[in-house]
Amino acid sequence: MEFILKHPKTGEIAIIVFSNRSIQNHLEDEIKDAHTCDCEPIGETNVVDCNCEDYLCEFELQERTD
Length: 66
Description:
Blueprint: E1 2-6, E2 13-17, H1 20-26, H2 28-33, H3 52-56
Antiparallel strand pairs: 1-2
């Protein structure tokens, strides 16, 4: 994937190219954080009684083949 950056004063252009695999490796933690559960507090308390986080942390991001 190609990213094009432009300096606001000089107009100089910089092009940075990352492979899909490289982007995935850089974003691995954010990708895992985006995968959440929908547990809600019980009644009028702030207590959430579920084990979604324990379950979700077991997921492993798979290597890209491209």
